[in-house]
Design a protein that fits this description.
By secondary structure, the chain is an alpha+beta fold. The chain has 4 helices and 8 strands; from the N terminus they run E-E-H-E-E-E-E-E-H-H-E-H.
């Protein structure tokens, strides 16, 4: 996953390998310098009763973007390539099957697997999920930034 902060809102950009996470991160970085926390691995963790935070890690991908910074997580955004930019809500029930193959959880150890599954349930119950269908163009950055302005953090 990639992580960005746009207009004060942290967005976790999730998708399978090759979907365009690093490409979108590079497009966003060009449009809004220093907005990308990371283009490869992002740490997501609960923060008391205040919600969730996402943070950059030392690992980057093809865009080479990795920052030691964090942001309040406002939305989980699943990526899909499309000829025209569009965004729609994704109900939590539909988001879990998309999230499972993208997270690192030690499924072999029952205690860790239970903690990981519980964390994903809690995340999806408290952070809204969306699907962003985007064209790999600079217009996608403006589209996502304008949309992020409308987010209300829970």
């Amino acid at each position: 996953a990639a992580g960005v902060e746009l207009n004060g809102h942290g967005l976790l950009l999730a998708g399978v390998s090759g979907i365009g996470k690093s490409t979108l991160a590079a497009i966003l970085e060009a449009a809004f310098p220093a907005c990308v926390l990371g283009d490869e691995r992002i740490a997501v963790r609960p923060v008391d009763k205040r919600g969730w935070t996402l943070a950059g890690t030392p690992w980057s991908s093809t865009a080479g973007l990795a920052r030691r910074r964090s942001a309040h997580l406002a939305a989980l955004v699943f990526l899909e390539q499309a000829p025209v930019d569009a965004l729609r809500p994704r109900p939590a029930a539909g988001a879990l099957p998309r999230l499972l193959p993208l997270v690192s959880v030690d499924w072999a150890l029952p205690a860790l697997a239970d903690r990981g599954a519980g964390a994903m349930d809690a995340l999806l119950a408290s952070v809204p999920a969306f699907v962003f269908r985007f064209a790999k163009s600079p217009a996608a950055a403006q589209f996502l930034s304008t949309w992020a302005e409308t987010l209300v953090c829970r």
